[in-house]
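Write out the 3D structure for:
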Amino acid sequence: DLSSFSTILNTGGIKSGNAKKSEFYKVLNESGDKQMPPGEKLSDADIAVIYNWIEQGAENVECATFSCDTSTFSFNENIKTTTDLYCKSCHSGSNPDAGVLLTNYDQISASAADGSLSGVLRGSGNYPIMPPGNAQEECEIRTIEKWVENGSAMD
């Protein structure tokens, strides 16, 4: 039963902090009748997000929503909201993907300063495009780029 967070934890066999021992994760990698979801297998990127979520404690997090306006680029109102929505699930906790933490101003502004934040938004240079599957809207990408171009200030 995947109807609520509590039933996922209680009936999904999730071992918080240990995806490989979590039944919920194991069935994503099965084949045939044991595969979940039935039919088409989840993408590797989707499975990786679930793996990281379990490894990082299987916390009940909600995605924030916001309206996109490229005329403003406030860290707290735009940048942090966007990175929380698209980056935090993989780039937080004790074992972040690629060793990159993106949970607070210091971490995000350091990524802006070294060029990696801009690089992953467009997949330029030697950077892979992030998030996997390029889920961000152009407006959100442009807002982050404007913030970087204007000095990555904290507001």
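The first helix runs from residue 5 to 11.
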